# Entry
Amino acid sequence: MSDLEVRDVRVAFGDVVVLDGVSLHVASGETVALLGPSGSGKSTLLRVIAGIVAPDAGIVVVDGIDVTHVATHRRGVGMVFQDNQLFPHLSTLDNVTFGPKLAGASKDERNELGRMWLDRVGLAGFDNRSVTELSGGEAKRVALARTLAAQPSVVLLDEPLTGLDRELHDRLAIDLAELLKPITTLLVTHDRDEAAVVADRIVALADL
Amino acid sequence: MSERTSRRGVRSSRWVALGAAAALLVAASACSSDDDEDHGSESNDSVAVGQPPIAPPETTGGETITLVTYDSFPEADTSLNDALAAFADQTGIDVEILVAGDAGTMLSKASLTAGNPEGDVMWGVDNTLLSRAVTDGVFDPYVAAGILDGSVTIDDAFTSLVPNGEAAPVDYGDVCVNYDIGWFAERGLEPPTTLADLADPAYAGMLVVENPATSSPGLAFLLATIHEYGLEGWQAYWSALGANGVEVVESWTQAYYERFTWAGGPTPMVVSYGSSPPAEVIFADPPRNDSPTGVIEDTCFRQVEFAGVLRGTDSPDAARQLVDFLIGEEFQSELPLNLFVYPTNQAVDLPQEFVDFAVVPEVSRSLDPAVIDANRSIWIDEWTELVLG
Amino acid sequence: MNRLPRWLVAALAIVPVVALAVFYVWPFTTLVVEALSGTAIADTLGRPQTWEVVWFTLWQAVVSTAVTITVGLVPAYLVARFAFRGRSLLVGLLTATFVLPTVVMGAAFLALLPDSLDRTVWAVIGAHVAFNVAVVVRVVGSLWEHLPTDMEYAAATLGASRWHVVTRVSLPLVRPAITAAATIVFLFSFTSFGVIRILGAPGTRTIEVEVWRRATQLGDIGGATVLALLQLTLLAVVLTWSTIAQRTHSRALALRPVAPLRRARTRAERSFVSIAAWMTALIALVPLTALVVRSFSTPDGWSTNAWTNLGRTDVRPGLRVGIDPVDAIVNSLINAAWATLFAVVIGGVASLAITAAKRHGRLIDGGLMLPLGTSAVTIGLGMLITFDVAPVDWRASWWLVPVGHALVAVPFVVRVCVGVLRSVDPAMTDAAATLGAPPVRAWRATVVPYLWRPLGVGAALAAAISLGEFGATSFLSRSGGETLPIAIEQLLGRTGTTLQAQGYVLATMLAAVTVVLVVVIEQAQSSRDRAVGT
# Structure
């Protein structure tokens, strides 16, 4: 299992300092919810961890290894984007098996894996659906399945439940907590109730 | 040519096309309004009235006519141009020279503009292209006054080529391969003496010819080889020439003045004229009394050039007067030393350099104009495929 | 509704409809009707050379397209994703290259390449690629901009390397744009004329060049017509296929907002950006530089002779080559002035008609685009064989060449104007009407004033098109009336260095004028965009 550590991260875009001296530790298998108002730099912190934004100072450590200068695709950090970013040219199953395919899994292996993950997120039989026809809740589940199927050491979730209607939101929050239980997870949200349901521990960005 | 005649045949079909366009026009405008019927019928009317206009005879004096010619005709500053100025003095008609490319290109343009020509008189269609000019209706037939009244004598062999007076024979000469005497002497190489020699690997890469599609000496040389090797054999000969590195350019001026070693180019043999050697003596600087270039007599093909009134000219009278002048003694006597051709007017005395250095082969090749006409485009196509393709 | 009266709409529509019917539909129909002579079809299709020309046309177009797309995707990605110094300069440079007259690009490659490569198919393909890279950058780049950067990051977080991100996600998603760009490049290469007239040898002839050769050199109008129609048929097949292909793969990507540009952050990114930007700039700059250099070079070293003695084309005392460069400049300027006037009048009126007539407007719009789909050579040939009998024997008319140019330029003028006119808020006309203005006056006060600025842009475009037009002019210009592109082609076809240098001088001048016009157009366009606030 793997843990995640962020130490003294600073990010500035021009004159605007977005993150300054941010440090955070997520233990192996732990799910941490990061709370903060919108525009407070939560998403930027996730992007620093994923390697999308390079920090001006500080380091990111995954599983004891400093990955600050490692390219995104080699970090083993999975991320579910707020707007999912499903690949519109691929079927639902091909979206989910995107990671395994890159990892060199055979067609049978990865399809089996993909179907297993679709089943686990409650979308069994969605294999050949076009991702552009999925509902908001379905698309989120596919995005989650896609990230988990790539077997990352650490999973990052950016506002995973924002924009879903109340009933769907609550049901998915419970499912999420279940699915993420064994995985090292950092979840960003502005909703304290949601954080309480999904996460083992809640931290506020302002306190870091 | 068959395309042209068949085009005339289906000319009525173009009114079908016009009808279609007009119908579209009416339909399209009717969509937006019914106010525009006027216009639709107007354009139909203007077409229905159509009759070929007949140019009203014009009185001469103070007018300018245009002599369309090939690009080896001097535009200014020579005694030939002085002679044309004399014509202006005598008749009050100014002559402008319009260069329309090499003879083949010039004739193609004339064919496409037949009836609505770029000028009034055309100089320089030769016997290899004459039938095409006649079929395409380029010329308005006119027998020069001097020929009619017997004051100008021209060899029957030439006038018989234009039995209906389509154009007037103005000069003749031979298209022959020329070689740079000094260039061969320096290398201790004997210049070739026959057509067959030109394909000899000993002379590889030493010949530049003109494209027969665009150039009349180019076509004449092609005909010389057809004359030698026959309808079935010339292709093999040209394949051999091609393998021997023959160079092809578009026009005679380009071949002679830009590629021939004697004029500063890289190639020691060029398809030119039997009369090119005297030109080299006359233009020699410093003066010399022998020609630096020679002629391979076996390669010579007889070329007769014609001038005629262009059909559709606005000034037919002035144009005819110019044709009369072009075969007159005054102008004809300037031809040898300017265009390096023999005048057809038998009264003209040849200049001494011409007598001394011009080569008139004992037997010059020629082909029946009817055979040339029937096969010209096929031969050019085949040649293009063989040599350039 | 405050509709304009029908008479006004009709009066506006009549101008473009008549122009189109007389100068396009009629010649084109004549061409089709006359080609139906069985012997011409049988002769042409039965000749093995025809199929060799068709085969050459096809394969060089396919290779040109493939290379252009491959080369163009890198700058397309660069421009769509990265902010860097000189980015807009680079885009402008590529656009200028694309708008250069074909003979100028041909001349530039002739100047650039060593003699051994001059007249080969590789020179031709090189010129096609340099020409059309801008198409790929503009068409693919503008779709790529809409592709969310986060989608690429999402792929990276799933373990995709940069290469895999591009090949598995980005390229499949911009595929409709690639198909569209490939179609455009293919069309240009397939109907290539000016480039091949300068760079081609007799064995490297496109159908377009063969149409011209048969008609003007061999006088075989029937054969030329059959070839022109054969080309149109082949193009129709390709276009149909491309339309179907684009429809199948089209995704609603373009509906997403443009992803913001970013600066290169890592060292690898920075070196990618600078290498890609420089390579792209070189593709555009090197041929043009070669052109200028050759206009100053002689076998004896550098000289301004070709510039100062422009017009001296003697090969022997009194004997000239029959092309006067100075006359060609004058002819081109006069032609361009008239063509611009014609195009602006027809295009301006047409734009008003198109926006006013709504449904029928689309018909006029589509009709005016037709000449673009027909090759210029076909248009020239059609006009040549149609307007040669009284009372429409217009071959000698000074206005025939400018009208041919205007026909090609009108669609561009219309595109620029209609876009602006359509964006004029209809509510404004309504507002004016509620203030008591009758529909015609409301229209005159609120719509017409918006026409002037795009019309200025259209005029510059029309002038650039006319100055560089070569295909139709090859058929319509008469001896002594040669335009710049015609004179350039003839001078460069000569072997004498002084004549060639003069050809390069003319090509340099034409390139400079075109680039200036493009800059004017781009400036006017971008200041408009700023004004409208898009």
